[in-house]
Design a protein that fits this description.
about 375 residues, alpha/beta, seven-stranded mixed β-sheet, 14 helices, about 35% helix, globular, binds flavin-adenine dinucleotide, binds uridine-5'-diphosphate
Length: about 375
């Protein structure tokens, strides 16, 4: 069977490319997806109690990229949503990321912004070179705050000391000299009004798009012919792991439903120092759904299992670069998305990459 375009993987990367090719080039696209559903990790669904859950962890859309926001806005209306996270430190629930509110609540003080600046400056450890995530945190907030908020959370999440991890990881969490306790400060933030799965379904409502679920691309690779392939699965698997398996971090998502309206004070509560899980998400507080019961999710990070996060160490990056060299020799194949590019992309970055690929390489407007 011949298709001018084949997309391996029906996550946001693959679906954006499929949508653009089908709509703009009016060409047929086959999307091949290993799982039983589209959406990749943004997939959401109603559980047996009728509560909308994010099956692969809490997803909050946020971006400063207006084109990406407007592009996805063609397929959904947005609920206004400003994400907030609390973290349990010394038995208290404290706002994350580190703001004036965090410092005042941690030390039971009522500092002004100026006092906070002096307070942090007296603790931050000056460094000539910032090489690791540990350096990022120590140089910003000093030893004590690092230990209470970052050290153990990072060890749980990655199974490594922050000193072994790339700077980009802890750099995701800002230090804010303000009272702004939102988790993100991007200009556009929101939750798709009917959920991510509905958004994804609208993206592929085009008769040029065919979707093959429950199918590993590797298994049908020899049976289908194509003009161009856009591959969004793990980079190593495409090449039969010839340079060894790339490390991806995985997570066990454990759901619990309670016969009560509310479980916790915030949509997400982090547990840096207690328990084996990193955080608890209460879905109703993300989606705004009204229901007499509530469902929560605990995240237990692990090394093996479904690949969710590229592994942020220099060794893994070097290993990935071997695959990158191989990619350059593949004709009419593009590697895209969090797994294939081995990058810790947020949703907006993945859509941006996909739109750029469509415009620059595939001839979409
Ligand atoms: P994926 O969503 O991983 O899609 C890849 C698809 O390819 C999958 O469906 C997979 O089954 C399929 N596939 C793989 N191999 C094959 C194969 N051989 N054959 C066929 N199909 C294959 N981003 C945000 O912006 N905000 C958030 O709050 C946020 N929270 C997150 C929380 C968690 C726990 C995780 C893991 C990620 C989070 N993200 C968040 C990131 C977001 O999920 C990603 O940026 C985005 O989903 C990546 O899309 P993708 O298409 O590149 O990859
Ligand atoms: N992090 C931390 N303490 C926290 C929250 C995050 O140390 O309370 C670190 C940790 O290393 C984590 C990284 O910051 O992996 C990025 O956090 P983010 O909330 O962006 O993680 P994600 O939602 O992508 O899992």
């Amino acid at each position: 069977m011949y298709f001018p375009y084949v997309v391996a993987g029906a996550g946001l990367a693959g679906l954006t490319v499929a949508e653009r090719i089908a709509a703009q080039k009016n060409e047929r696209v086959l999307v091949v997806e290993k799982r039983s559903h589209i959406g990749g990790n943004v997939y959401d669904s109603y559980n047996e109690d009728g509560i909308l859950i994010h099956n692969y962890g809490p997803h909050i859309f946020h971006t400063n990229d207006r084109e990406v926001y407007e592009y996805l806005g063609r397929f959904t209306k947005w609920n206004d949503f400003w994400h907030r996270v609390l973290t349990q430190v010394d038995g208290n629930l404290i706002p994350m990321p580190i703001t004036l509110e965090t410092i005042n609540r941690l030390y039971h003080m009522s500092m002004t912004l100026e006092e906070m600046q002096h307070f942090i400056a007296a603790r931050a450890i000056p460094m000539k070179e910032i090489k690791t995530s540990r350096d990022v945190a120590l140089s910003r907030v000093g030893e004590e705050i690092y230990q209470k908020f970052f050290e153990n959370y990072t060890k749980k999440q990655w199974g490594l000391d922050p000193a072994e991890i790339d700077t980009s990881v802890i750099s995701r969490i800002p230090l804010r000299f303000s009272r702004d306790t939102r988790y993100f400060t991007d200009k556009y933030q929101g939750m798709p009004r009917e959920g991510y799965t509905k958004l994804c379904e609208k993206m592929v409502q085009n008769r040029n798009i065919s979707i093959l679920l429950n199918t590993d691309f590797a298994e049908i690779r020899k049976e289908i012919r194509f003009g161009t392939l856009i591959y969004t699965g793990p980079a190593d698997e495409y090449f039969g792991c010839r340079h060894g398996r790339l490390a991806y971090r995985s997570i066990d998502f454990v759901m619990e439903t309670y016969n009560q309206e509310s479980f916790q004070e915030a949509p997400v509560v982090n547990y840096p120092n207690d328990y084996d899980y990193t955080r608890i998400t209460e879905f109703k507080k993300l989606t705004g759904q009204q229901h007499r019961k509530t469902t929560i999710m605990k995240e237990f990070p692990k090394a093996e299992g479904e690949p969710y996060y590229p592994f942020p160490t220099p060794d893994c990056r070097a290993q990935y670069e071997l695959y990158q060299k191989d990619m350059e020799t593949e004709k009419n194949v593009y590697f895209l998305g969090r797994l294939a590019e081995y990058r810790y992309y947020n949703m907006d970055a993945v859509v941006r990459r996909a739109l750029d690929l469509c415009r620059d390489e595939l001839g979409c407007r």
